[in-house]
Amino acid sequence: MLANFRVGHGQDAHRLVAGRPLVIGGVTIPSERGADAHSDGDVLLHALSDALLSTYALGDIGKLFPPSDPAHAGLDSRRILAEVLTRLVRTAGRVEFLNVAAVVTLDSPKLGERREAVAASVAQALGVGAERVGITFKTSEGLAPDHVQASVSLLVRCEPLHADPVTYKV
Ligand code: C5P
Ligand code: MG
To answer: What is the pTM of this model?
Structure first.
């Protein structure tokens, strides 16, 4: 069976406002401000979901979950990720997540103590070990104090479920 390697990349940003939860990779972080978003505003899971869709040119989560749809208000981003995984497997067959490399940019609060929890949460959502999920935290050095953003790169290996390799003779 032929295996395909695919790179994915996604990113997301939200404005920070008072009175909203701050959810990063499925982990709720104690914070006075959170993402101003239609869903739970989890920038890391949104960037991850877009990165996964990008591996097979499946569009983006804004297309799958239009913010204009009231049914998506307050949506748990793990549901977005689950739908993305379903679609990916439908297209790509058996998928192995080799590694996920995520960068979260946020000036405050500090997230360093949460690194293991965030990596474990993302790993669980993908069904892989936490050693495959690298989480980098950065400040914006004060350039974007009202924003939280995330960028995710990843590598997947896929094995088409039904594809018998076709050999062309010339
Ligand atoms: O952005 P900068 O390079 O100044 O980040 C310095 C350190 O602060 C890094 O080790 C990073 O892990 C940590 N950090 C953090 N929480 C944030 C932003 C950065 O723990 N919200
Ligand atoms: Mg620095």
So the answer is: 0.92
